[in-house]
Amino acid sequence: MLTHKEIWRGIDQLAVRNGLSPSGLAKRAGLDPTTFNKSKRVTKEGKLRWPSTESLAKILEATSTPMADFVGLIGGNEAAAGGTPIRLKSIRLSQINRSDDFDASGFLTSAREEIEFPTIDEPNAYIIELDADMAEPCYRIGDLVVVSPGSSIRRHDRVMVRRKDGAMQFGIFNRRTTQRLTLLSIDPSRQEVVLNLQEVLWVARVLWVSQ
Predict the structure, then answer these.
(1) Residue 50's CB: how many other CB atoms inside 10 A?
(2) pTM listed for this prediction
(3) Distance separating alpha carbons of residues 44 and 24, to the nearest angstrom
(4) pLDDT in tens, 120-175
(5) 4-81 maps to which CATH number?
(6) Which one-letter DSSP state was computed for residue 115?
């Protein structure tokens, strides 16, 4: 029998699998950003609130997820949900100041600590702890950003760029040519940001952000 807890777990896991928060998943599907907020899952009177079949259909379509995969997420299937919890290397944003923190492809080679993180089936992923605001209100102090340098990047994926001057830059991948990398800013303005590839060391996909 399908339970209230299971259906919401499936939605949360679908968001994680696509590198989104529940609100980000709702926005990608064209829904109100608060549709899947945890505060809306139970009414003030304690009555359980279920997601509509229409909203479920929209998030499956928006993420190109077959129903069979979503059923696996609902049932807590570890393979479908993205694997068992693993410990990810973690580094603070302000500590990213040495060239030997990363290799030439963006893999983290040193870390101050490790954090156990669920359902990320990417052993080379790592966590950046933000101790400074980045493009408010998108990324704020205290957020954890899970980054994967080994994941393929598609248009509209969130990415982190390491520039040769040492700066880290977050954005939304738009296109890449032999000479330029074009991003959209992560703030609501979605302004286009064009970088000369000669300025870029590497680009890594953002899998998940705690918001």
Answers:
(1) 12
(2) 0.59
(3) 24
(4) 667 788 888 888 877 666 777 888 888 888 888 988 888 999 988 888 889 999 99
(5) 1.10.260
(6) E
